[in-house]
Each structure stands twice: as C-alpha cells, then as structure tokens.
Amino acid sequence: MRAVEHVFEIILRLYPKEFRRQYGDEMRAFVHARLGEPRYATPWSAFAFVWHVFVDGVGGAVREHLFARTPAARVSGAAPSHEAPIPHNEPPEELMATLVSDARYAVRTLRRRPAFTIVSAITLALGIGATSAIFGVIDSMLFRPLRYPAPEQIVVVSMTRGGSLREAPAYPDFVDWREQSRSFQSLGVSRSQSLNLTGRETPERLSGNFVSASLLTLLGAEPLAGRLFAHDETEVGTASPVAVISEGLWRRRFGACPARATRKRTRP
Amino acid sequence: MRPREPRPADFLPLTPAVLHILLALADGEQHGYAIAQAVEALTDGTVRMGPGTLYGSIGRMVAGGLIEESTRSRGRGGDDERRRFYRMTALGRRVLESETERLARVVSLARAKNVLRRPEPA
Predict the structure, then answer these.
(1) B52 contacts in A (CB within 8 Å)?
(2) Nearest residue on chain A to B21, judged by CA atoms?
C-alpha cells in the first residue's frame, strides 16, 4: 500500500504547482481511501488499481499543463463560443525554473528511498524492454515492407480443399500454371523438406525446401559464393540435383570454402 | 465593457466526467471520494474516475462556476481532514438541466430513427 502511495507521490509531481497546491492533499486522501477498499485487497486487483491511477494520473497531468496555458474554464466537450485566448501568465523562464525545481525534488526523493528507486527502475526497464521487443516484432511483421524487390507485387498462391484448407499444389499443377498463367511475371514453387547431409564424418539432419529455380530469382536472392540454380537443375528428373545451402551451414560444415559452395549433392 | 454572464448553452456539450459529477452532486454536497463512489454506483461501475480525472474536472468546474466549495468544516463527522466538500451552484444546476434536456432530445431522435435498442422484457 505504501509503495502505491509513493508511486502516486511521483505522479503528483508531474502536475502544475498551483494544481498540486489546490488539490494535492485531496488526491492523496482519495488514493489512500481507495486502497482501503476491500476490492483492492488482492495483489492482482491492487496492480490493476495502480495501473489505472498511473494512466489517469499521467493523462491528467498533461491535461492540467495544457489547461494551465489556457486558463479559461473548460468543462465542455467543445470550446465555449465566448472563450477567447488568454495570454499565459507564467513567463517561459519561470516555467523552466519550476520544471528544474520539480526534477531536483524528484531526484532527492528517489535518493532517499534507494530500494524503491531500484524496484521502480527495474520495473520500468522490464516494461520498456518488453514493449520495445513486441513493437520490434510487430514493426517488422506488419508495418515494414518485405525485404524483396517490389514486395507489393508478391503474392502467395495456394490451393483450397473444401473452400478453406490451404495446401501447396502438386508439381505438375505448378508447371501448368507457369505455362498458362498470364497474370504473373514469374512463378516459383517451394515445399519444405527435411534432408540428410551425408558423406562427411558426421551425418546431419537438415531442414530445407525443394524450390524451383525461378523462386530464388524472383525473390531477388544473391549467393554469397557460388551460384544459384540453373533452370533445368530444378526440373523433375534432373540428372544433376544441386543444393543452395545457408551461410551458417557453409561455414559450419564446409569451412567457408568457396570451391565447395558451388555444388553439393544431397540425398532426401 | 463588462463580460456577459455565462449561459448554460456556453458549456454544452459536457464531458462525461463533468456530467456525472453534476449528477452525483444533485442530491447534495459531497467530497471528491464520495462523488467518485456515487458516480460508480449511479453507472453500475461503468464510469470509474481516477484522481486525475476527478480533481481536474472539479478544478475546472469550480473555475467555471458550476460547483463551489461548501462552507462545511473539514474533518467533521470523522472525515479525513484533507477532504473538501463541493456543492452545485445555481448555474451548475441550469447547465445540468440543459445538458440532460439536450441528451433527451438526442434519445428521442434516435428512437424516431429506430436506432435505439428496445429494453429487454423483464
């Protein structure tokens, strides 16, 4: 309970000095009374209350600073018609002095309670870190375009069964699409496939894909070493099956040898 | 030139917080915490005001003349001495009447347009 009131004390420092003088004590009494209510007895409900007070308090502080610059009373959802802009009473240098004074007071308060400060800092760090991580994922998945040439023109074509099930087409179907389609500049196909890497000292099970040569070309892939597939190397019944391997596998199992990057047989 | 007296229409539409605070004070003077509790009870818990919203609204309502601090002494009847009591002014009551009349007209309009869901039969 005491910790919540300490948090609220910090939030209160965000409010304009005049507002704090007018309503600070009442707001403290309000929070104290709320914390005494039985519904906030469990840790989860107390946390929900803290969150509510935090959001409400910070939002309220921003509003009060804005209203402090337009002192005409605003109680309506729209500006009253008689409301005229009134010059701000507090000169900018005094406003800055107030902010500096508030910041110093906050630092002194935090130094007096190191345990509380450390817990608050860790909580903030975890919160900001988690939020940043989630935003990073959402940003790369939803907001940023795919890192391929002309990403807005790339589509995934699937077959349906019963109207909803997505599944990859059979290879002969893909060949028909490629030959008969006039809607696409290029069509590629891919199917995930586990593979065994053998012929070395230790065999290894790898995750890979069977792909058509056109897929890597249309996605703008560039080999770090060696070359990509030639067209006939990925057709059914090709006499010379080849693989394009990841940089990680190339370094880990082939010692990053350029000569071996060109061609490597695999056996499914 | 003397500024003219504010009219109720100048304050409309009210923010939800201001409207509910006025409704809570319609029965008599109360302190901030009691106002928040009354608003929760009036709205079945759907409107829950935190201290920032509550006292920000109270501050602007006092400045606008809709409510005023009561002369009731602090700490009477075992209340927390930090609490002040507020009551509605005559202007506040006229504003509340105007706002509820305005809302009633909106409800009538919605009913005429058949966009208001009828209450479930008991």
Answers:
(1) 11, 27, 56-61, 63
(2) A75
Q: Mutating which of B22, B23, B33 best tests the A interface, going by the most A Cβ atoms within 10 A? A: B33
Crossing angle of helices B51-64/B32-42, nearest 10°? Answer: 110
* pLDDT tens, position by position, A68-124: 766 554 555 444 433 333 333 445 566 677 788 888 888 888 888 888 889 889 999
Q: How far apart are CA A100 and CA A94, in angstroms?
A: 10
Task: Tell whether the torsion through CA atoms of A177, A183, A184 and A185 is positive or negative.
Answer: positive
CA-CA distance, B95 to B101, in Å (whole number)? 10
Give the CATH class of B11-112: mainly alpha
Cβ of B33 and A75 within 8 Å?
Answer: no
Q: Three-state secondary structure along chain A?
A: CHHHHHHHHHHHCCCCHHHHHHHHHHHHHHHHHHHCCHHHCCHHHHHHHHHHHHHHHHHHHHHHHHHHHCCCCCCECCCCCCCCCCCCCCCHHHHHHHHHHHHHHHHHHHHHCHHHHHHHHHHHHHHHHHHHHHHHHHHHHHHCCCCCCCHHHCCCCCEEECCCEEECCCHHHHHHHHHHCCCCCCCCCEEEEEEEECCCCCCEEEEEEEECHHHHHHCCCCCCCCCCCCHHHHCCCCCCCCCCCCHHHHHHHHCCCHHHHCCCCCEC
CB A189 within 8 A of CB A211: yes
B122, pLDDT greater than 60: no
CB–CB contact A77 B36 (8 Å): no
Q: What is the CA radius of gyration of chain B?
A: 17
The owner of tokens 């402090």 is: A68
Judge whether B84 and B36 are in contact, CB under 8 Å.
no
pTM: 0.50
Query: Which letter does DSSP use for residue B118 in this model?
Result: P
